[in-house]
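To: structure desk
From: M.T.
Subject: fold request, one chain
Message: Could you run this one when you get a chance? Sequence is below, nothing fancy, just the single chain.
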Amino acid sequence: MINLRIFKRAAQVVQLAAGAALLTACVSSSSQVTATALQHAPALVSPDAAAAQRDDVHGSWPSAQWWTQYHDDTLNALITQALSKAPGMASAEARFATAREMVRLADDDGLNLAASADASRQRLSDNGLFSPKFLGFNWYNQADLGLRGTYSFDFWHKRRDTVAAALDDAHVAQAQRDAVALSLSTSIAQSYFGWQADQVQIGILQQQQVLAEKRRAIIKARVDAKLDPVDGVYAADAEIAVLHQAIVNGQYSAKLRRVALAALLGINVDALPDFTPRPLPAVDLQLPDNVAIDLLARRADIDASRWMVEAAQRRMSVAHAEFFPDISLNALAGLSSIEFGKLFEAGSAVPSIGAAIHLPVFDSGYLRAQYGVRATQVNAAISAYNETIVNAAREVATSTVQLQQIAAQRTAQQVQYDAATHLLEVAQARYQQGLTDARPQLQAEQSVQQQQLALANLQSAALAAQINLILSLGGGYQSTNTDAALAASKME
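Reply: Done. Structure tokens follow.
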């Protein structure tokens, strides 16, 4: 009968809480904040570029391991090492692991059980409230054994939204980790191919220097023979010095690129492998057909921004739920006795059950301020999301325009190279016929090499623009749902 009364009291508490919730709902409704609108995906390429795409072979999205398309074992090894051991990746992995643990921390189903046991022996004071003379003893034992359970109701979905916000944070951390991996891999590719471009340039410059020295020898011989003024020697020396300076600059540039690679990998420069010079890979990348549609799901930074919006909205819901009362049930199954031998007797049982309610009545505007903060955080997250989309569109458009510009420049440069080649053939024919000395032929060869150098520079710029396009397209990233993995981590 006593237990039935306790349950009735608990039911009355729940009914009172429902009535109080209706009153507090009026308070919360006055704290609404107008939300910022989400940005739609803008046009990423101009109509002219889209028309050019239709007339050409359509491109495909970069794969997750996009760097393997270059078929360079050294590059593959560098990126693989960076993704597994680089300090930047370690930090990103640590942030993701922390976010996963925060999900486990927030995942409270409302039910808590706690066991307790206590045993003590104590002496009563002779001058205390209860004198031992009247009780008949000075020392007594106290033993307590109990199991306490508490269940908090989630009527307003505060606990559910808290867990959902933690899951969204984990999604953010995962997407940011993938963004770091893409940034790291593209930076390594840029530095590595920059080193290869330096080697190509150095080789051409060295060939030009050899030709310039041959021309100087002919000029010097003519000056010694009193056929030409000495000015030609000075001009040849200046030309050779300029070429030598360009070679030294290229060598230092290559060293700096190795330093940059070592820093990206988090190792000493001496620990880098020796690189073998090789021709730069060909560049032929077209924009995917559905770039304007799929970009939102293929860029890690956009995905992270979207999950930030989701997390902020969840936390605003939690702040809204704070206006409503918290209701919980408490139960205790316990044993208590002043004699150890009687602890487990039925008469030592001290069960109890009750209900509790926490209702905000007056808080000097704290709850409204907290809700307002969460609402402004939602607007800030949406604004950041919109900005990320605009920046993504700009980056794709910039990379596309760069590739188009380089393609046009390469076409014009090829014409110049072909003309220089024809001039070389004419100069060689005249030299072989004995009409001129070797100087016109050497000059024509050097002109051809200058055009080769210009083509090599354009090839290097095209490769850099291609890697930038891969970066702006997301580098093969796919938005994935990690809820299953996170749920599995909670069971560990």
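Reply (cont.): Confidence is low (pLDDT under 50) at residues 20-33, 43-47, 49-57, 488-492. Let me know if you need anything else for the meeting.
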